[in-house]
Design goal:
38% of the residues lie in helices and 21% in strands. It is α+β, with helices and mostly antiparallel strands and 207 residues long. Strands 1, 2, 3, 4, 5, 6 and 9 form a 7-stranded antiparallel beta sheet that branches. Strands 7-8 form a two-stranded antiparallel ribbon. The longest helix has 32 residues, at 119-150.
């Protein structure tokens, strides 16, 4: 028994995935730039995509240690020499580690569309999924901000393995600390997350 609290699941984690965000993912800065046929097709794809989202997250608040030899240790097992992460977490004694996903259903649908030769609809649906993952990060940050401020802590912006000089292999201990498989997130041998429309990272609590 370690006495460490169990990671907490946020399910559901409400997200707001807007049409303008999807258009940005597709390279359109304005709705007026979208061809009429594409616009109609996108509306239909959005209607079919939204019910497929199952946004949820799992998170754990862990202590940050700074060994004399340099680097950071989070939660006792996530060790990194990343300078960019150290800068992001400067002044923080605790950090919230998280993993979140919109679930596998959207990706399964994209795959079926592609296999059926419906390439345009598949591309539009994939953009919907990417936009939902962005919205997932925004929703998670909002939830953590409220929680940290209730504790008198000022949250940092989220940061993730693979950003800057933070090696992607930190996904391994991060996912173990939050128990990502509890919400269906696993890692490939290259430390990529499955389902693909998933996010992970750390948010520091300063104060």
């Amino acid at each position: 028994m370690t006495g460490r609290p169990e990671p907490r699941i946020l399910d559901p984690l409400p997200i707001e995935m807007s049409r303008p965000l999807v258009l940005l993912r597709l390279g359109y800065r304005s709705a007026t730039q979208v061809p009429e046929k594409t616009s109609r097709l996108l509306d239909g794809v959005l209607d079919e995509a939204r019910p497929l989202f199952a946004p949820r997250a799992i998170c754990a608040v862990e202590a940050i240690e700074r060994p004399d030899g340099g680097g950071l240790v989070i939660g006792g097992t996530l060790r990194t020499g990343s300078r960019s992460l150290a800068t992001r977490l400067e002044g923080c004694g605790r950090a919230l580690l998280f993993a979140a996903t919109i679930g596998p259903a959207l990706e399964d649908w994209v795959r079926r569309l592609s296999d059926a030769g419906e390439i345009t609809r598949a591309l539009l649906a994939d953009a919907c999924g990417s936009s939902a993952a962005i919205a997932l990060g925004t929703a998670l940050e909002s939830a953590v901000t409220r929680e940290f401020r209730d504790l008198g802590l000022e949250p940092t912006k989220r940061y993730a393995p693979g950003y800057g000089d933070w090696d992607l292999d930190s996904q391994g201990p991060l996912m173990a600390l939050v128990n990502g498989p509890r919400i269906g997130i696993t890692l490939t041998d290259d430390f990529l997350m499955l389902p693909g429309k998933s996010i992970s990272g750390v948010i520091g609590g300063r104060g």
